[in-house]
Amino acid sequence: MLNRSYILLGAALAASLSMAAQAPDTLKEAYRGAFHVGVAINVAQITGKDAIGDALIAQQFDSITPENVMKWEVIHPKVDTYNFDLADKYVAFGEKNHMFIVGHNLCWHSQTPDWVFKDAQGKRVGRDVLLQRLHDHIATVVGRYKGRIQGWDVVNEALAEDGSLRKSKWFEIIGEDYIVKAYQWAHEADPQMQLNYNDYNLQSAAKRKGAMALVKKLQAAGIPIAVVGSQDHVRIDWPSAEDEDATIKDLASLGVKIAITELDVDVLPSVSFASADVSLHAAQDPKLNPYPNGLPAAMQTKLAEQYAMLFRVYLKNRASMSRVTLWGLTDADSWRNDWPVTGRTDDCLLFDRKDQPKPALYAVIDEARKARR
Ligand code: G3I
């Protein structure tokens, strides 16, 4: 175990360290040799405005994903305008810190500007025009970072909850072969880069079946798909260890590696839909926001137990796992504070709103130690 200085982590950690007698490993040290531990980073972190966050990211994680800055609406807002400023800074941050750098994402139903699907008269474009636009976008963006981004989420969330293909504009205008084409073009633009498929709720049997069928189709078309990403936007009481284990094993049986790409553990009351579909929103209600002043100790413990369980399952399947990425650094950064209800206080990550480690962080590090014994 390494006796590291955690000066950045402040008083709370210093106190718990003196109690623990020995400094804990960092996340990346604890999991070295098992899989990468990554984090999604936001604009403040990419631009250096969140200096404490940046130091914590460099200290704890060996992989990064851009939470938003590589999405189509940011990187390619107009037909002839690409905006690489933030994406360039993101990649430079990863290189400076010798990280495994992920690209997110190239083709998604969400956060894609309207112009992509319309002609100059505002009418829906046809298949050929949309294919050309998809090709040009992928060739330009992947080409720019060739050899510098190690894996791209090429197609993101192409499945509906029943496992059929989502009826997105991509699907409606092009047809189902938009998926194979996107992967072909990404592979052509950077043949060394890992091709990822990324989706949520893969613990649901129907959706997982759809994901497996999609991967098989890609393989049959000769696409060297390397990684299936299970986002793991999960809950304090879902999924069970058995469901998580079955999800990883089923997907890995296709000969791909598994990445957990967007891990967070929701502690708030559930609203009527349980997914990560950002187009859905629920009304505000104080009953849905029970911890505005912080999580009670019993809930912190429960959260730590759920994280520990998940990492036990990941470790058990380590031969199939390439990476586990947290969807945000601290609770203050999380998208969950604003979805599906705006202005809530979720405590779903490993660091709190003051950049301090939570019991869940220690629990996760502890699982790696136990696995080494
Ligand atoms: O950039 C604008 C900013 O200019 C404006 O001032 C601000 C005010 O609302 O909005 C900003 O954009 C927001 C953006 O996050 C950056 O904060 C968007 O409205 C908001 O919709 C966007 O949400 C992101 C969401 O994807 C949609 O792209 C979340 O941060 C991000 O965590 C979330 O991530 C997705 C993954 O990409 C795919 N899987 C599900 C996951 C969670 O929804």
| Backbone CA Rg | 20 Å
Helices, by number, come to 13
Low-confidence stretches: 1-21
Level-1 CATH class name of the domain at 62-225: Alpha Beta
Number of strands: 9
Largest sheet: 8 strands, parallel, barrel
CATH fold call of the domain at 62-225:
TIM Barrel
Molecular shape: globular
CATH architecture of the domain at 62-225: Alpha-Beta Barrel
Strand content range:
5-15%
Q: Structural class, please?
A: alpha/beta
Structure description:
This protein has a domain at 62-225: Alpha-Beta Barrel (TIM Barrel). The chain contains 13 helices and 9 strands. The protein has helices spanning 10-20, 27-30, 43-46, 51-60, 72-75, 85-96, 127-144, 169-174, 178-189, 205-220, 241-252, 297-316, 359-372; strands at 36-41, 63-66, 100-107, 151-156, 194-199, 225-230, 233-235, 257-266, 321-326. α11 (241-252) runs parallel beside α12 and α12 runs parallel beside α13. The termini are close together. The site of ligand G3I has 10 residues, from loops.
Keywords:
9 strands; 13 helices; alpha/beta; TIM Barrel; eight-stranded parallel beta barrel; 38% helix; 373 residues; globular
Quick take:
The protein is an alpha/beta fold.
What's the layout of helices and strands?
Blueprint: H1 10-20, H2 27-30, E1 36-41, H3 43-46, H4 51-60, E2 63-66, H5 72-75, H6 85-96, E3 100-107, H7 127-144, E4 151-156, H8 169-174, H9 178-189, E5 194-199, H10 205-220, E6 225-230, E7 233-235, H11 241-252, E8 257-266, H12 297-316, E9 321-326, H13 359-372
Parallel strand pairs: 1-2, 1-9, 2-3, 3-4, 4-5, 5-6, 6-8, 7-8, 8-9
Helix pairs in contact: 7-9, 11-12, 12-13
Bound molecules: ligand G3I.
